[in-house]
Every structure is written in C-alpha cells, then in structure tokens.
Amino acid sequence: MVLWGMLPLALEALLERLDPVTLTWFRFGFSALALAPLLAWRRELPRFDRLGRHGWGLLLVATGFLAANYLSYLLGLDRTNAASAQVLIQAAPLLLALGGIAVFGERFARLQ
Question: How many domains does the chain have?
Fold first, then answer.
C-alpha cells in the first residue's frame, strides 16, 4: 500500500529526466526481465505455442491497452501533480464499474 501510494511521486521525479514513452518501455522491459527468470525457475512460464491465432490477437490487444494505460497515466502525471494523479488512480476502479453499468448494462447485487 505504501509503495502504491509512492508510485506517483517516484514517477513524477523520473519524468523530470525521462519522457513518458521511454519510462513506459523501461517499466515493461524491467517487468519482463524480472518475471521471466522467476517463472522459468518455478516452471510456470506460459506455453505460447498453445495460444493459437485468436490467443495471440488477444495477447497483443491486452499488451497494447496495458501500455496505453501506463502511457496515458504518465502523460497525465506529466501535466498535473502527483496528488491529483493519486486521486484519479484511486477513482479508476469505481469509474470502470460505472462504465460497465452504463455501457454493458451490468447488474450488481446489494453486497457488490
């Protein structure tokens, strides 16, 4: 929780020296370099040969949208301050749920 709260502050400091695109590529690259050996050691690397054409398409779309999410967050952080970005990032799950209700007509139980 502390690290999640510090993320906008750290990224804001990094944006003084790096542009958002470079920082996004660094985040993706470091994640891949950190996770690949760990998953290989635990023998939990995904089998890409089982994906098929549809699976590869979904993987590319998911990767593209995840990169767009990171990049748009950094672009927004570059134009505002860390406090504003932290408020918006906390509101994102609620806005996503409201979007699901408005766009897809989802229904939620009282507990949800």
Answer: 1
Asked if residue 110 is part of any domain, the answer here is no
Determine the residue type at 15: L
Nearest to 69 by CA among 20, 103, 18, 31: 20
pLDDT tier at 46 (50, 70, 90 boundaries)? confident
Alpha-carbon distance 65 to 52, whole Å?
20
Query: Over 80: is that where the pLDDT of 1 sits?
Result: no
CB atoms within 10 A of CB 86: 17
Structure tokens at 92: 């994102």
**Residue holding tokens 């635990």?**
42
pTM of the model: 0.69
Question: Does residue 109 belong to any structural domain of this protein?
Answer: no
What confidence category does residue 22 fall into, taking pLDDT thresholds of 50, 70 and 90? Answer: very high
